[in-house]
């Protein structure tokens, strides 16, 4: 794995004109704040054909469960104005198969890996987390995707209920790694859920997941996705993500936040950082441009240089210091 402990990205021709993009998500040190978003680039290694994965802050893989899961019926994706609707349904081979067949390619690429897990029940989350304990040091953290259905109460996702969200976080300690709780924007007060998972042991919160939506073919009256409704992602939800990050940072000044939602440029990444994110993720933009995470990183570097930001810490949370 490359030595990036003194990572500095030089944005000008003079060595005196540099942008130090290094950041940390809790105890996880990163050379820069740009990561992929779970579920938008397979298990991550696919992007290695377009750029050096070790150059990103981290690669966040597609969510895996304790056992294989087939996901939802097709069609699963549908483009909409300023974004995309999806109802993939978290299809995955299970943690054991992922560890054996997908993780080696990321390890070989020198990527820092953030595993992502989900489940139908608290016990499912525990089983998935426990299985990750046997992974190597390249897996630096585990993102606990709480924005999933659960059969204990189909009326609510874990991320819609503070007690259930906290229970899932407590159950995942067996992964022996920092846990980031990925939360849903489809709630009345996201700060209430954030407070619950932070108290339960989450070292960071990832804000946000998709916004609930529905696309209908007016000629047939049928939903355009095989599962009916789905999640809206892309540029359309960026302001929602900015508000969620801002509100959680205001409520919990010392919390660690990963911002995600509609990041497609260096400026949109900078906006989430200014709202209070310590790092960001690039997701839907990779469907149109597989190089998007690398491009956003370069654009963020250039944006910082153009705005006299020599260290990314000057930008993180800036909106709360104005």
**Intertermini distance:** 39 Å
Uncertain segments are 1-16
Structural class: alpha/beta
> Would you state the CATH class?
Alpha Beta
Verbal overview:
The chain is of the alpha/beta class. It has a single domain, classed as TIM Barrel. 27% of the residues lie in helices and 20% in strands. It is built from nine helices and 18 strands. The protein has helices at 95-101, 103-108, 122-132, 162-171, 190-199, 238-251, 266-275, 285-288, 292-306, and strands at 9-10, 18-19, 23-25, 28-30, 34-36, 59-60, 77-80, 83-86, 113-117, 139-145, 179-183, 204-207, 211-213, 216-217, 222-223, 230-233, 257-260, 279-282. The strands form five sheets. Strands 5-18-17-12-11-10-9-6 form an eight-stranded parallel β-sheet. A four-stranded antiparallel β-sheet has the order 7-8-16-13, with no helix packed on it. The longest helix is centred in the last third of the chain and has 15 residues, at 292-306. It is globular and about 55 Å long. Mean pLDDT is 93; it is low at 1-16.
Can you summarize this structure?
This protein is of the alpha/beta class and 322 residues long.
Strand-helix topology:
Blueprint lengths: L8 E2 L7 E2 L3 E3 L2 E3 L3 E3 L22 E2 L16 E4 L2 E4 L8 H7 L1 H6 L4 E5 L4 H11 L6 E7 L16 H10 L7 E5 L6 H10 L4 E4 L3 E3 L2 E2 L4 E2 L6 E4 L4 H14 L5 E4 L5 H10 L3 E4 L2 H4 L3 H15 L16
Parallel strand pairs: 5-18, 6-9, 9-10, 10-11, 11-12, 12-17, 17-18
Antiparallel strand pairs: 1-2, 3-4, 7-8, 8-16, 13-16, 14-15
């Amino acid at each position: 794995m490359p030595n990036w402990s003194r990572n500095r990205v030089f944005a000008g021709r003079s060595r005196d004109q540099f942008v130090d993009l290094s950041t940390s998500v809790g105890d996880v040190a990163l050379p820069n704040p740009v990561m992929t978003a779970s579920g938008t680039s397979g298990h991550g290694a696919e992007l290695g054909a377009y750029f050096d994965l070790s150059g990103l802050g981290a690669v966040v893989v597609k969510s895996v469960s304790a056992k294989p899961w087939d996901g939802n019926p097709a069609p699963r994706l549908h483009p909409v104005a300023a974004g995309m609707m999806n109802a993939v349904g978290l299809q995955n081979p299970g943690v054991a198969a992922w560890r054996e067949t997908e993780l080696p390619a990321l390890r070989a690429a020198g990527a820092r890996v953030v595993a992502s897990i989900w489940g139908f029940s608290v016990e499912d989350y525990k089983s998935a987390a426990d299985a990750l304990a046997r992974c190597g040091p390249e897996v630096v953290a585990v993102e606990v995707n709480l924005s999933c259905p659960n059969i204990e109460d189909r009326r609510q996702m874990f991320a819609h209920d503070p007690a259930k969200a906290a229970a899932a976080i407590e159950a995942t300690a067996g992964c022996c790694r920092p846990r980031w709780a990925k939360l849903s924007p489809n709630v009345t007060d996201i700060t209430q859920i954030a407070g619950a998972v932070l108290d339960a042991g989450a070292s960071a919160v990832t804000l946000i997941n998709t916004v609930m939506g529905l696309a209908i073919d007016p000629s047939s009256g049928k939903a355009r996705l095989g599962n009916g409704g789905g999640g809206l992602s892309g540029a359309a939800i960026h302001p929602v993500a900015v508000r969620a990050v801002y509100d959680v940072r205001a409520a919990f000044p010392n919390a660690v936040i990963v911002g995600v939602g509609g990041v497609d440029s260096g400026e949109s990444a900078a906006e989430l950082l200014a709202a209070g994110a310590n790092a960001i993720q690039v997701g839907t933009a990779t469907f149109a441009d597989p190089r998007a995470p690398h491009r956003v990183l370069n654009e963020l570097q250039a944006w910082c240089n153009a705005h006299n930001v020599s260290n990314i810490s000057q930008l993180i949370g800036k909106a709360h210091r104005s």
